[in-house]
Specification:
CATH class: Mainly Beta
Radius of gyration: 13 Å
Mean pLDDT: 90
Order of helices and strands: EEEEE
Helix content: under 10%
Number of domains: 1
Strand order of the largest sheet: 3-4-5
Number of strands: 5
Largest sheet: 3 strands, antiparallel
Shape: globular
Length: 57
């Protein structure tokens, strides 16, 4: 399976056993991508949101 990086438009190879919510990295720009949909061998990804640390503040 393959997807396109929304940041740099590179082709990202997706493992066959991937699940929704899993994070993969773009091999070109290093952007972390979240799997949001898997349908008929097609995968949709979005830029993964990075949550900041809550240091108890």
């Amino acid at each position: 399976m393959k997807a396109r990086c929304p940041e740099c438009d590179a082709e990202v190879k997706i493992p066959d056993d991937v699940i929704i919510g899993e994070i993969v990295s773009c091999p070109d720009c290093g952007q972390e991508l979240e799997i949001v949909e898997i349908t008929n061998g097609s995968v949709k990804v979005k830029v993964a949101e990075v949550e900041g640390e809550d240091w108890g503040e």
